[in-house]
Design a protein that fits this description.
hydrolase, protein-glutamine glutaminase activity, EC 3.5.1.44, CheD-like_sf, Cytotoxic_necrot_fac-like_cat, five-stranded mixed beta sheet, 60s Ribosomal Protein L30, Chain: A
């Protein structure tokens, strides 16, 4: 069954026939997590690096790298029985704008926050297809952890 991850959402599945998908990752970053021993998969679609305050993090934890990634990993370990050391982490998205007036550089800030959060949690990234000026949609096979990517140029 297809499970769709919206912006600021995450999905976890241990059903071998499931596929977890998210669409149109430009400056947003998808973090996928896979445990081959269970099998168990999770994905989060991060929109921003961190919340302005704790209330934002409580309302929409998956929207932010600094609150969403720990939540996803905690659930994988506590609720699904994964060992943290068995998790394979991959990153997708974080595109940069071709506009010269891209003042905020959200894609780059998202990538930095994701990497720092994973480093703080002692989680290693096994693959990263990030940056560039493309929009990525990804599909994750829960059974195998394999990722299928569809990429399109970002048009302005």
């Amino acid at each position: 069954m297809d499970k769709i991850v919206g912006i600021g959402e995450y999905i976890i599945s241990n059903v071998p026939g499931d596929f977890i998908k998210t669409f149109a990752l430009a400056s947003c970053v998808a973090v996928t997590v896979y445990n081959a021993f269970i099998p168990l998969s999770g994905m989060i679609h991060i929109a921003l690096p961190n919340p302005v305050d704790i209330e934002q993090a409580k309302r929409r934890p998956g929207y932010y790298a600094t609150s969403g990634i720990p939540l996803l990993v905690h659930k994988l370990c506590r609720e699904y029985g994964s060992q943290r050391g068995d998790l394979q982490v991959k990153l997708f998205g974080g595109a940069v704008s071709l506009k010269t007036d891209d003042y905020f550089k959200i894609g780059l800030k998202n990538i930095k926050a994701v990497r720092e959060t994973l480093l703080d949690m002692n989680l290693k990234i096994t693959e990263a297809q990030i940056g560039g000026a493309i929009s990525r949609s990804i599909t994750m096979n829960v059974l195998s952890g394999k990722i299928e990517i569809t990429a399109l140029p970002i048009n302005f």
